[in-house]
Automatic annotation (TrEMBL):
Pathway: Amino-acid degradation
Source species: Niabella soli DSM 19437
Protein name: Imidazolonepropionase
GO molecular function: imidazolonepropionase activity; metal ion binding
Residue ranges occupied by any Amidohydrolase-related domain in the UniProt entry: 73-411
Enzyme class: hydrolase
Organism ancestry: Bacteria, Pseudomonadati, Bacteroidota, Chitinophagia, Chitinophagales
Keywords: Histidine metabolism, Hydrolase, Iron, Metal-binding, Zinc
InterPro entries for the chain: Amidohydro-rel, HutI, Metal-dep_hydrolase_composite, Metal_Hydrolase
SUPFAM superfamilies linked to this entry: Composite domain of metallo-dependent hydrolases, Metallo-dependent hydrolases
Keyword Zinc recorded: yes
A UniProt-annotated Pfam family: Amidohydro_1
Amino acid sequence: MKRKQPYTLLGPFKEIVTMEGLPLKGPLKDEQLPIIANGGILLNGGHIEAVGAFESLAKKKEVLVQQPAVPGVVLPGFVDMHTHIAFGGSRANDFALRNAGSSYQEIARKGGGIWSTVKDTRALSRLQLAAITAEHAQHLLEQGITTIEVKSGYGLTVADELKLLQAIQDAALLTKADLVATCLAAHVVPNDFDGSPETYLEQVVTDLFPVIQQEQLTTRVDVFIEQGAFSAELAIPYLQQARKMGFDITVHADQFTPSGSEVAVRLNALSADHLEAATQREIDRLAKSNVIATALPGASMGLGCAFAPARKLLDAGCALAIATDWNPGSAPMGSLVLQAAVLASIEKLTNAEVLAAITFRAAAGLKLNDRGLLAPGYRADFAVYETDCYKEITYQQGRLQPSEVWKNGERI
């Protein structure tokens, strides 16, 4: 049967970095990057029909050629698989106190930290939170980030966590980016909760999870395992109950002390995020698992602490993702390429390792197998940069921004 509408052929581009054929785990060399010179992308609606030499694709029947405004370098749409962009208020005072010598934990004990953001977030309406979340998402989208994970966790009551997750759902209608919601009701025990941490988690499971499922607000549950948050002993049954109810699970792990990544491995979580305090023991366990190891360099920059041991994680055989951790406290920057480039300089990561960590390896951490590559059947999500060589993108550490961003085959 003859096709009624022609395919759209975009190109020619100087370089198309497809990311196709690279392994999910382990180190990568730049020589492994699949790069098509003078290439084209054949679009079939919101998906990719073919990627290859432009002249060859242009000879196909039923093709409508569309020359790009900038015939530069094309990369897959980036995936930011760990953010907290649904929040109210500012934590500029926390930043000043940290730089003056106070620790993260000391600031929290004095009423700052996560609790101050909780109070500011609770004060906002669902409509206001949706607008703020969409504004943050748009900032990321302009950087070529076409898929964004968004956590709750600044409500910390059943009603306020629901409001946050509903606001994230509303925000998804206000942006072209795909928003993937995650329930982080187990962020910390709220200061105004009259009960034990165990009782609080039981309340979340009993009163919040069923409503989340009924309203189809998210299929993902996260927990912060750390001193001052939740212990591994409490997190394990909480996550097991979440999984029993059908949720995918992920873990804030090893940010200040190790223990969280062990839980992630034991329960086969999708990802273990942070890992700044991971030792060789934790690295070896992660390498033997299917858990995506997620580095959050923005938090290290914001807190002035060590970076996740990305080089050791890769060399051990882990799947490394890199995300912004955009949040008002420790990582307010929201600049993925800058943060990834800084981590690359500190940890000696190749361009191939960085790009894999913010494309298909990050997508795996969200259990999304339809993006992160420029290949037939994948979503037509990509960014075009005005440059002759892909290496300029990390070299310029975020200064070089996309000239075009495409989502689902549409230039946005």
